[in-house]
Design brief:
The protein is built from 11 helices and no strands. It is mainly alpha-helical. The termini are far apart.
Length: 271
């Protein structure tokens, strides 16, 4: 009962939002699309933080890989050094998950709202584009629901392509594989919920395209330039070894004296 009491405010909130959008003149399905756009517009500040966090992760990726190699055998020390590195360079790895976490209450509230629509249909047409007979029915009820599921998987893969640039290869493969695992669960959801998630994925794809065009990539940290005062590598290696003056493993060849043939011929001609 406590669990349902916590979810009822979300259900009432999104039911009022959908009713307001429907009274403006939008059908119920397009009200869900409009709700998705409103939610993503409200999440723009979190999205900007997410983009900056991803850029910082890409910028300092070589340094983080070096830390991972250095403390590969000590998991606790690795986490401590990574957290220290994040703090020194103002990196928030959790910022990339904030937009997704913020949409979770919307997902839950919309699910219960559509479930109420299935039990007590509101006034108006629940179809979408004469393609989906009812947005409150399960996705597997109609053949058009399977089409929406296919579009959902394609849009999820496309959005993962733009959002998984800083992940490791194993994590990226897992993110590409998850939509095919979740499809068995999402198939039991109402079609309107699939429509919501499909719309937010398409928004993420468009956001990624705009970000790549308008926001320049953050360059990696500049390496120190070598000047005339910078000692050569041989001297640095000798200094690090203790300055014992040991000869290098591959001694350099002595320079051969130049042969001046033309001058000898001229001297013989003068004699």
């Amino acid at each position: 009962m406590t669990y349902l009491a916590l979810l009822q405010p979300l259900e009432h909130l999104f039911r009022h939002i959908l009713n307001g959008l429907h009274q403006v003149g939008l059908p119920w399905a397009w009200s869900i699309v409009a709700l998705t756009v409103i939610v993503r517009m409200l999440l723009v500040p979190l999205t900007v933080r997410q983009i900056h966090s991803m850029q910082n992760m890409q910028r300092f990726a070589p340094q983080m890989k070096e830390i991972q190699k250095k403390y590969k055998g000590d998991r606790q020390k690795l986490n401590e050094e990574l957290m220290k590195f994040y703090k020194e360079n103002n990196i928030n790895p959790a910022a990339s998950c904030l937009p997704l976490l913020a949409q979770f209450p919307v997902f839950i509230g919309l699910y219960y709202t559509l479930r109420t629509f299935a039990k007590h249909p509101p006034g108006g047409n629940l179809s979408w584009l004469h393609f989906v007979p009812s947005i409150a029915a399960h996705a597997t009820t109609y053949w058009s629901g399977y089409v929406l599921l296919a579009v959902y998987v394609a849009s999820q893969l496309a959005s993962t392509y733009f959002m998984a640039g800083t992940m490791q290869r194993s994590q990226r493969v897992m993110m590409y594989f998850l939509p095919f695992v979740f499809i068995a669960v999402i198939a039991r959801f109402p079609i309107g919920l699939v429509l919501y998630w499909m719309t937010t994925n398409l928004w993420t794809v468009g956001q990624g395209l705009i970000t790549r065009r308008l926001i320049p990539k953050t360059p990696p940290p500049a390496m120190p330039k070598r000047s005339s005062r910078t000692p050569p590598k041989e001297e640095v290696a000798a200094a690090e070894s203790g300055g014992d003056g040991a000869a290098p493993a591959t001694p350099s060849r002595p320079a051969q004296p130049r042969r001046v043939r033309r001058k000898k011929k001229k001297r013989q001609a003068r004699r």
